[in-house]
């Protein structure tokens, strides 16, 4: 969408279906060029001046229509479409898709196997907490995980609410084999800010890069 005009994705925005399809086609070309098999289909914001409850039904209908179209296009390229709930308490008060429950309900209505949940634990904690149960409940739907400490949105080992060593072990126990995206704002230097990852690898008996010492 038009970021300067305040748009943040178009998939659920009524009247912007043509622009969504055009943007998706461009995204697919970029994804093919860099070998990325997953595309985040951003829902977008409740229109300015509109009451969220009053437009919720129309936005859901638009979202479902656009997601079905996207699923068909992405299937031709052997790609996965992702939907991400973004909290509307702190980050974006007008964003349409806010909780994993809402996302799961929409994915069920869409009914396409190549559409998955992009679960950012930062947003999930702010909206709902209950991370262990939510990860277990929605695990079959999850196509990508993102992390940041709450509330500062910094490194996982910065002060905050989330116990990331526990969360990483839970993801391993559930059998998660996908990527974990580090979607946080480093408190300082980016490379220094990755010290938490080296420490985590060492705590698990791994060398830098995630290879086991036994394998070395």
From TrEMBL:
Residues 9-199 form the Xylose isomerase-like TIM barrel domain. InterPro entries: Sugar_Epim/Isomerase, Xyl_isomerase-like_sf, Xyl_isomerase-like_TIM-brl. This is HYI isomerase. It comes from Pandion haliaetus (Osprey). The keyword Isomerase applies. Keywords: Isomerase. Coiled coil: none annotated. GO terms for molecular function: hydroxypyruvate isomerase activity. The gene is Hyi. One of its GO terms (biological process) is glyoxylate metabolic process. PANTHER family: HYDROXYPYRUVATE ISOMERASE-RELATED, ISOMERASE.
């Amino acid at each position: 969408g038009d970021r300067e005009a305040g748009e943040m994705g178009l998939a659920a925005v009524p009247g912007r279906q043509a622009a969504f399809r055009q943007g998706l086609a461009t995204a697919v070309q970029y994804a093919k060029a860099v070998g990325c098999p997953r595309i985040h289909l951003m829902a977008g914001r409740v229109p300015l001046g509109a009451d969220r409850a009053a437009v919720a039904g129309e936005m859901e209908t638009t979202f479902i229509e656009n997601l079905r179209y996207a699923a068909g296009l992405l299937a031709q390229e052997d790609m996965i479409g992702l939907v991400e709930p973004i909290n509307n308490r702190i980050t974006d008060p007008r964003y349409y898709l806010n909780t994993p429950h809402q996302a799961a309900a929409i994915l069920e209505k869409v009914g396409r196997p190549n559409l998955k949940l992009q679960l950012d634990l930062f947003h999930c904690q702010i909206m709902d907490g209950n991370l262990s149960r939510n990860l277990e409940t929605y695990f079959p739907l999850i196509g990508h995980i993102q992390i940041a400490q709450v509330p500062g949105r910094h490194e996982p080992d910065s002060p905050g609410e989330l116990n990331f060593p526990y969360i990483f072990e839970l993801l391993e126990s559930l059998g998660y084999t996908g990527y974990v995206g580090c979607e946080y704002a480093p408190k300082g230097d980016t490379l220094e800010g990755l010290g938490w990852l080296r420490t985590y690898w060492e705590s698990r008996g791994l060398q830098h890069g995630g290879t086991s010492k036994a394998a070395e």
